[in-house]
Amino acid sequence: MSNVMKIENLNYSHNLVKILNDVNLKVESGKIIGLLGENGAGKTTLMRLITGNAHGTGAIEVSGTFQAKDRKAHVSFTDHLNGFPAGMKIGKIVDFYRTVYDDFDDKRCDDLMKFLNLDKTMKVSALSKGNKEKLIIALTLSRQVELYLLDEPFSGIDSMSRKKIINSIIQWKPEHATILVSDHYVSEIAPILDEIIVIKNETIACQKQTDEIRENKGMSVENFYESLYDEGGNNND
Amino acid sequence: MEFDDKIPIYYQIKNYLYHQIVTGELDPGEKLPAVRQLAVDVTANVNTVQRALTEMINEQIIEPQRGKGNFVTIDVDKIKQLKDKLVKEQLTIAYQELHDLQLSDNEILEELRKFMKNRGVENE
Amino acid sequence: MTSFGSLFKALSGEKFRNSNFIILIELLYVIVILGLSVFHGASIDLQLSTGILAGAAFIFMSFEFIRLTVLSEKKYTSSTYRLIPVSDTKFYLTNLLSSFVNFVYVGLVQGILFAIAIFTNWNELNHLLSNMSTEVNFSKINTADIFKGFAAMIFVLLAIAILTWTTINLIHLLSKAASNFLPRTGKNLLTFILYVLVIGLVFRVVGFFTDQFSNSMQFFTGPGYNANYLGIWINTLIFLVIAAVEAVISIYLNYRWVDTNNEN
């Protein structure tokens, strides 16, 4: 299988605080991968670095491109829509996405909106937490790209919304695209993951196939993930 | 479908489909849903479902037809063998557990008879 | 890669809605003030209407300028906008252009309002002009001079607008980029120092601009007018060159260091 993304010697600090230290990572095409780690471990930062919205040192290659402006065309990220006025209607936001992303697919968008019961005439400010997260997922998956970065799409939402989001991920993932989905709590998404990547102590602590964990270690993915913190001892908050 | 996260997911999907075939929910010769549809139905990853199907193909319980999808085998002997295998698996587990409780073979049979009789009464 | 047209549309949307809102409020303001004047017994003549319009133009153009600055700066640190697949140069120039176009748009509306005021009071204007030409030596000022003066005034104004935008943006991005190298307290101190420096600079520059501006206005005041047009054009050019240098630095900062606000 070919790699959709390759990261070499990636470092990032903010306000002189080291957040990621010498990250090296290869991610294959066609997978659903869980990006795990505690709150504040650097999951969001890693995604922001991949999109080019944060700047570190080191090389990030996505679909053969290195420059941030080129990578952006191959990566779809769950942006939290803060650039829009709160009173904006969903339909207007869809128009914005259609305008700025050449790879935006109207058919996918309509299908996703229907599947997730989203009404285009609704205002974003009127959406519940679960529905806003659904909208973000719908917009992110409406683009046709090689790499999707879903940043904690399940945090703080009800189980029905969660199930809907998981199903839309399964249903709308293009066959050869890879989805990287971050969470600090693995059990809810474990069954759909091919692989997990764990960030701990500012770098990649492990990258493993989930069925390999179950088969070779006889452990649930959740227990395995927790075991990484038992033996280490030097946890950051 | 609810998965046990300690057991490989592909294995659980395979067993789930085998149950459907043995119980006749999927008839011999019937077409299986498309991979992506199956993935949605059981809430698992397409790759994992594909792995389960590949093993089922290798075990000759389903047959892929180019461009059409996967079909349950029409060889009823194969399905019979599969059923025997599944029954044997369950019996092995139960037998082993009961044996570990220091029950003799006769006692196991006796307990099983008693169990089935009482269960019947409760159900009436 | 997103095309220039699409990017321009995306970056202009909010600014355009804002411009239209300001025009609407301005029209309401003008109507209310005119209404009040009539109510108090004044007749709507040239002096009254142009006076009201000049006041309104000053207030609402300033307001438009400030709103455009705020909306423009937000785009640089907004993930929503910075995820758009374009180069930093294209993003910067398009954002600046969309502010500029919106500013000109609201400016044109002012022009139209003045034109309406003048045409509805055409007879009065002619009367005024013929009176003036007998009092001051008005005939020495020809139409070409008036146009030259106007053009110079507008160009100076637009150059000032661009330079102000590029300067504010540069400060904004410098303080954002500093986050990479300074601890939180140090960054706050730097931002403070930058603002003090810039406010001082603004006072100096405003004084300088005021001179330029009155220079471009001289055709209204001085008989035997001989404004230094060449000087005005050269100064305008200098402003634009400074703006271009600031733009290059800002684009590099965006490319190399400036992170968007982390809102997730």
TrEMBL record, chain A:
Record bears the keyword Ribosomal protein: no
Coiled-coil region list: none
Organism domain of life: Bacteria
Domain ABC transporter span(s) in chain numbering: 5-226
Keyword ATP-binding attributed: yes
A Pfam family per the record: ABC_tran
GO MF terms, alphabetically ordered: ATP binding; ATP hydrolysis activity
Keywords carried by this UniProt record: ATP-binding, Nucleotide-binding
Transmembrane regions: none
Native species: Companilactobacillus mishanensis
Protein name: ABC transporter ATP-binding protein
InterPro entries in the cross-refs: AAA+_ATPase (IPR003593), ABC_transporter-like_ATP-bd (IPR003439), P-loop_NTPase (IPR027417)
UniProtKB/TrEMBL annotation, chain B:
Keyword Chloroplast: no
Annotated signal sequence range: none
CDD domains: WHTH_GntR
Pfam family, one: GntR
Keywords: DNA-binding, Transcription, Transcription regulation
HTH gntR-type domain location: 7-75
Protein name per UniProt: GntR family transcriptional regulator
Organism of this sequence: Companilactobacillus mishanensis
From TrEMBL, chain C:
Keywords of the record: Membrane, Transmembrane, Transmembrane helix
Lineage: Bacteria, Bacillati, Bacillota, Bacilli, Lactobacillales
Protein name in the entry: Uncharacterized protein
Naturally occurring in which organism (per UniProt): Companilactobacillus mishanensis
Transmembrane segments: 21-42, 48-70, 91-119, 146-168, 189-210, 230-255
